[in-house]
Every structure is written in structure tokens, then in C-alpha cells.
Amino acid sequence: MNVRLNEVERRVLGVLIEKALSQPQYYPMTVNAVVVACNQKSNRAPEMNLDEDTVWNTLEGLRERGLASRLLPGGASRVERWKHETKEALGWEKPQRAVMAELLLRGPQTVGELRSRCTRMFPFESVESVTAVLEALSQGAEPMVSPLPRAPGQSAVRYAHRLYPDAEWQQLARFASAAAAPAAPAPAADPAGTEAPAAIRAELAELRAEVRALAAQVAQLQSRLAGSA
């Protein structure tokens, strides 16, 4: 199943999965509960301020695609409630749902971060058990997870879900690759002791300025996608 979700759809689906695992007593969820969970400050990146109409329309869109379902009022419930259908539609078991919920709600993360943050949804016994889930999700013709290039100074690889629209995924991968690219080596000293021609010095200055600007853009994107750890 080819799944591509916009930013709001990712947040709403992530919330439904998260609450089903972490707070089953309040699940399925009312529209108002989904709004509150989408807009909460903790465990979310970026922060959002969604209204009820936006969330309801998003839930309807997910329902039409088979990723959510609506329960009409009945019995003890006086309002309609919503639940996700990712196990039925995508075959995700609890460990996979926990990992995907974290990636949907907070963006790219390392294996260690995922293990720690998934605890409220599913208790992974080890980092290796999280790695096994990521590997399973990364297989097949349409992988749900992919590793990002390791950025300079980082000892661990970050993983991202693949439910981004194609253009958004390409932008994320491009910025991650740029951040991971090695810095250009310093020019070799002139054996004759003379200075480099003015044209070369000007070109080097331009390249350095471009690299600094690109680094700033990458830092902003990483902050928006991953949030504060």
C-alpha cells in the first residue's frame, strides 16, 4: 500500500496510534481528544495549533483511505469516536506501531531515542530489538522507514519514516546528505610561496559562504523535524 501523508495527516494518525497503545482506557478517541493530543507540547515536533474542523476533515480523509474508522454514538458513548486501522491496512504489529508513531510525531530519531521514547507505548527490551523492527519496516518494495546519512559529529544514525510526500522526502534526504558531506579540504600551500590568484580566492570565498548558508538551512530543518531531544 503506497501511503503518502501530509503534515496534519501524519500528526493525527500518529496520535491515534500513540493513544491506543499508551492510554487504551481513553481509546477510541473523540475528535476533541484528538485535537488536544495533536496540539500538546510534549512528544511533538513541530508544535501545532490545529482546530476541530481541520482534525475532523483529516480523520475523514484517513477513513476514506482505510487508515482510520469512525464509531458512531451508541451504548454508553454519546459522541462519535475514532480509531486507526494500521494493523489491518498495513500489517503493523504493536512494536512496529510504537516505532512508527514516534517517527510520525517527532520526526527522524536514533535507535536509542526510539527505544527510550517508545517505552510509554511498548517496552523494548534492548536497542537490538528496536533495530530489528526498523530493519523489518525498511524492507519490501515500499519501505516504511529509511536511515538518513550520519551528520558530522553524530555517532548514531537517525531513521525517518517514508510516509512523507515524495517532494518532502527528497528535500529531507537532500538536506541530510548535505549535512553529512565532508568539508572541502583546505587548499594546498603554494610550493613557490606565492599567493593564489585573485579569481581563485574569490571563488573559494563564495563557496565557503554557500557552505555556511547551507549549514544554517540544514540546522533549521533538523530543528523543525526532530525538535528538542
What is shown here, in short?
The chain has 229 residues and is mainly alpha-helical. It has helices at 7-22, 31-39, 52-64, 86-90, 94-106, 111-117, 127-137, 166-180, 198-226, and strands at 68-71, 81-84, 109-110, 145-147, 158-161.
Strand order of the largest sheet: 3-5-4
The H/E string reads HHHEEHHEHHEEHH
State the CATH superfamily name of the largest domain: Winged helix-like DNA-binding domain superfamily/Winged helix DNA-binding domain
The total number of structural domains is 2
CATH topology of the largest domain: Arc Repressor Mutant, subunit A
List keywords for this structure.
229 residues; Arc Repressor Mutant, subunit A; 2 domains; 3-stranded antiparallel β-sheet; 9 helices; globular
Care to describe what's here?
With 229 residues, this protein is mainly α. The protein folds into 2 domains: 1-91, Winged helix-like DNA-binding domain superfamily/Winged helix DNA-binding domain (Arc Repressor Mutant, subunit A, Orthogonal Bundle), CATH 1.10.10.10; 95-229, Arc Repressor Mutant, subunit A, CATH 1.10.10.10. It is 52% helix and 7% strand. The protein has a 3-stranded antiparallel beta sheet. The chain has a two-stranded antiparallel ribbon with strand order 1-2. Helix 1 (7-22) packs across helix 5 (94-106) and helix 8 packs across helix 9 (198-226). The model is unreliable at 191-197 (pLDDT under 50).
